[in-house]
Amino acid sequence: MNALITISVLAVLVLYLGLYKANKALLPVTLLGLAVALFFTINHWNVFTGPTFNDMMSYDNFAVAFSGITITSTMLILLLSKGYFEKISDHVAEYYSIILFSLAGILVMVSYHNMTMLFIGIEIMSVSLYILAGIRKQDFASNEAALKYFLMGAFSTGFLLFGVALIYGAAHSFDLEAIKMHLETNLQTGQAISPLFYTGVVLMAVGMAFKVGAAPFHFWTPDVYEGSPSLITAFMSTVVKTAGFAAFLRLFATCFYPLHDFWMPVILVITIITLFAGNITALYQNNFKRMLAWSSISHAGYMLFAIVSLGSEASYGVFVYAIAYSAASIIAFAGLVLMQANTGSDSFDSFNGLGRKNPFLAFTLTVAMLSLAGIPLTAGFIGKFIMFSNALSSMHTWLVVLAVINAVISIFYYFRVIVAMYFKDAERAELEIPLNFKVVLAISVVATILIGIWPAFLPNVI
Amino acid sequence: MNLLSVLVFSPLVAGLIVLVLPASLQSRYKYVALAATILQVLLSVLVWVRFNPSLGGVNNEHTLQFAEKLSWIQLNVGGDSRLQIDYFLAIDGLSMPFLLLTSLVMFVAVLSSWEITTNLKGYFALFMLLDTAVMGVFTAMDFFLFYLFYELMLLPIYFLIGMWGGVKREYAAIKFFLYTLFGSVFMLLIMVGLYFSVQDPLTGDHTFNMVHMMNPANYVDGSLFAKFSGQLLLGIPARSLAFIVLFVAFAIKVPIVPLHTWLPDAHVEAPTPVSIVLAGILLKVGGYGVIRICYSIFPEAALGYAWWIGLIGVVSIIYGALNALAQRDLKRLVAYSSVSHMGFVLLGIASVTAEGISGAMMQMISHGFLSVMLFFLVGVIYTRVHDREIANFRGLSQLMPQYTFFIMVAFFASLGLPGFSAFIAEAFSLTGAFKSAGVNGLIPRWMALGGSVGILLSAAYLLWTLQRMFFGQLRLSGGEPWRLLLTDVTIREKIALVPLAAMALLLGILPGVVFTQINTSVLDLVKLVNP
Amino acid sequence: MAVFYLVAFLSIFFSLLVIFSKNPVHSVIYLIITFFTFTIHYVLLNAQFLAIVNFIVYMGAIMVLFLYVLMLLDLNVNSEPVKSSLMKIAGIVAGMCLLVTLAGALKGSGFLPAGAHEEVVQRPNLGLVKNLGQVLFHDFLLPFEVSSLLLLSAMVGAVLLAKREPREI
């Protein structure tokens, strides 16, 4: 709770800083505040005693872990933002504070214990993102992204809310534990569970699938990701996605678990469609940013594995996968931002010859691509490994075989970047990499490789 | 620090040194790499000397030698499952010869890297990484660790071909990468399946330990891969499926017909040192994997599919040889001859007789030296005139007598002239194949006959090439400039070639040097597969 | 129950009209009627507070939206419709208010057989403002407070998006 309060107060503080034109202090203050929030979050580790605030929130290790990832990723992304928003607008403080509001919503999303909190968390996050997607007011793509995201987001929220309402109608509670109890007692005593409940579960699954960008509810993703400013896209595809999955998993793993047999096939189908839709479309992209957007859809598919096969390792799998994916994506987007700032282009060809001119950047991007592709000794491999072994242990052989085929397909498009950087020569100037980018790239690469070699250093969730 | 760990990670250290050294010392990188490989050769000789040939190893953890076992990844993943992955290095007779082979081949490969001129830092760093990975594959006894090293081999090769290769390098690199990766991702699935089926008898945790996987008693009752559980996977018995998947994964590396098409492309586009490593070591990883993993973990499936494996071996022998006959590019010819020669390995393994498996082991080692020699020799011509069309050269013996001597040694050794290692190897493989029909009835006699035809064909293409390129009137398509460029072998090249030729000869005359070292392990393996 | 079915039918009927009418002005009018029917539902469910909030907020909001659409689409071209549609709205609002009052009165008089819903009959205090306040400011205090973040964020964002950027012009 302290973290949530810190971030909320921080957002208001940043607004005041903007009011008094203290633009230089914005980034340091924000980072400092986030560090404090991170400290408060980690302090909660292993001290969980039960849900708090009238059972509204539950700060268990799951919540702490995911709050930790999201806050850290946000810090890394904000570190990249030095000088970025200034180019877009004069009102820099507002951007920071909106990002912080969004993060506050995310913290609610990962630690809710009541459906109202889930809904409010998602809304705080989404409303902030609608604005962030459209902050390039003069840019048509950005406007389109904001509008599309808003309409689709509102639509999915409708589904979600309808689902919540139906479940309330059936179970007479918003509380996750109470709903689970309702299911369990009904299943034990052989009482029929109201059809309202089933409908509600499906509607909530649809709403969550919308939010995490899983097919067939993914159509907004590429346009929104491409149209938004790159840093905001980085935020959306890492922090927001992680939070979405944390919320998704929490809902289905703790609350709807007794109905696993009912909703599992639904999620299974969604997973398979997501994998293929994301991977195959990503193959045909010529634009790095759009490729990342589609690849993020396919990664949503891999993360859905955890929900399909809710084994004991599900939370841990999503946790590791989210870290791996976030670290690699942050590197990729950092590279993208640099490339756009220097050459104004984000096609694959603009990466030609980067290996010679910017060996460090090329190396980090290579590690990121390898990690996204799931090559061993990177964090991405460990993530996929846990997901696959988890699914195999619950005998989803076909699913894993399909996923493996997809992993091979993904090699093609991730390696296009590597091929461009190393195998293709082009006359190009050396990119200038500011110090803050170097720091972020180094941190992310070290994390990626460290987890790949020695995953045991990550704490165990659950 | 265990000897094997030093052997595995010393190249990595050298690679890091190369990375740290400033660019002004660029011309010194190769010496760092050379020093590392010389150290490695010395270490592997030490291993060879200290190796105790009376201990079998294979499926008995206590008779594995130089073992080093550390707990590496231990994750409490909730509930009763605990992810247990060990850092477990050890060798037995089946892997020990490969250590010496690898270190020698790497030494030669570094010597032939003198021709590389661009981006030396990246080149040598990747090369040393590759060295570490290969050594790791041959020593790892934990399946997970094995898999990591196995995959780790891919990336350096991919970059080495893609960045320093020929015109179509991009295509060749990704083709190589995808072929191998496609095999290995499915291997990953089987590996995970095995993990869930096998328990460490001491701790009761699931384990990736290969030695435990070889013992049927360690399988959880009713688990996916338990021997008598009769589980079906996608319609066929799970263990058979697992065997097929693993076999295909390794057979792509060997390579077998029809999964060999990456090999000629990769060889043609790769720079000479990479060709050397590919032919000399990576193909052996495939054979080694078949013996170490497919046969040892799924023996009954191996027996069941012996006929098919033998057939694939014979087809590879004959198809590779016929293709080699038709090649116009010298390097492609050598590449196809590799396909043909590696067919003997499969044939020998399929027979599951002591002779056959010893022959297969011998063939891998012998082919390791000989193919390296051949690719090195092709590289010698190629660096001088950047051409290797057979038709463009004629009567080279007059221009390069010493070179011709080496190539004759290599060719005659390859075609199985008595006195050279390939003769012993092929003779033993074929003996095993012949004997098999009488002993265990696994493969019919006509397959052994087919293999013999392959020897005949290899004599045909090698001698024909020798005649076309080296004898007769001197005629070069490049004319006078080529004449000046085509100087005879230099001292550096001799340093690389002489040990290889010597090894081929030594193993041909005194095959016992290898056979005594591997014999106990081979017998144990035969007993394990066909009790 | 008959009242419920009637109102439910009206709700669905007018919702469909909202979607299918080509003229946006008509759409908005149907939307207002739909909201009126919702208000009646709330009254039947004994949810006083919701009924009033729905009445005030949605009516207010929708009126503003309606005017906005009028301005945006510039329907002034034919001067006639403006007056008539305003009249229409006034008529509809008045008529619907009457309907809501009637429904409430019917309910109060016990005319509705067996109440609108079992639950309502069993717990007559359900949905009263007092109870709602107690729940909202006790059990659901946290969501109530946290939603201020949502409003603040939306407000900041709205200002940000609406504000003119001095540089870019």
From TrEMBL, chain A:
The keyword Transport applies. It is a multi-pass membrane protein. The gene is nuoN. It comes from the Bacteria. It holds the Pfam family Proton_antipo_M. Its EC number is 7.1.1.-. Keywords: Cell membrane, Membrane, NAD, Quinone, Translocase, Transmembrane, Transmembrane helix, Transport. Belongs to the complex I subunit 2 family. NDH-1 is composed of 14 different subunits. Subunits NuoA, H, J, K, L, M, N constitute the membrane sector of the complex. GO terms for biological process: ATP synthesis coupled electron transport. HAMAP family: NDH1_NuoN_1 (MF_00445). It is found in: Cell membrane; Endomembrane system; Membrane. NDH-1 shuttles electrons from NADH, via FMN and iron-sulfur (Fe-S) centers, to quinones in the respiratory chain. The immediate electron acceptor for the enzyme in this species is believed to be a menaquinone. Couples the redox reaction to proton translocation (for every two electrons transferred, four hydrogen ions are translocated across the cytoplasmic membrane), and thus conserves the redox energy in a proton gradient. It is an enzyme of class 7 (translocase). GO terms for molecular function: NADH dehydrogenase (quinone) (non-electrogenic) activity; NADH dehydrogenase (ubiquinone) activity; quinone binding. Residues 114-410 form the NADH:quinone oxidoreductase/Mrp antiporter transmembrane domain. It catalyses: a quinone + NADH + 5 H(+)(in) = a quinol + NAD(+) + 4 H(+)(out). The chain crosses the membrane at residues 25-42, 62-80, 92-112, 118-135, 147-171, 191-210, 231-250, 262-284, 291-312, 318-339, 360-386, 398-423, 435-457. This is NADH-quinone oxidoreductase subunit N. GO terms for cellular component: endomembrane system; plasma membrane.
Automatic annotation (TrEMBL), chain B:
Keywords: Membrane, Oxidoreductase, Transmembrane, Transmembrane helix. One of its GO terms (molecular function) is NADH dehydrogenase (ubiquinone) activity. The chain crosses the membrane at residues 6-25, 32-51, 87-111, 123-141, 147-164, 176-198, 241-263, 275-298, 304-326, 333-354, 360-382, 403-425, 445-466, 495-518. It is an enzyme of class 1 (oxidoreductase). It holds the Pfam family Proton_antipo_M. The keyword Transmembrane applies. It is found in: Endomembrane system; Membrane. It is a multi-pass membrane protein. Its EC number is 1.6.5.-. InterPro entries: NADH_Q_OxRdtase_chainM/4, NADH_UbQ_OxRdtase, ND/Mrp_TM. One of its GO terms (biological process) is ATP synthesis coupled electron transport. Belongs to the complex I subunit 4 family. PANTHER family: NADH-UBIQUINONE OXIDOREDUCTASE CHAIN 4. This is NADH-quinone oxidoreductase subunit M.
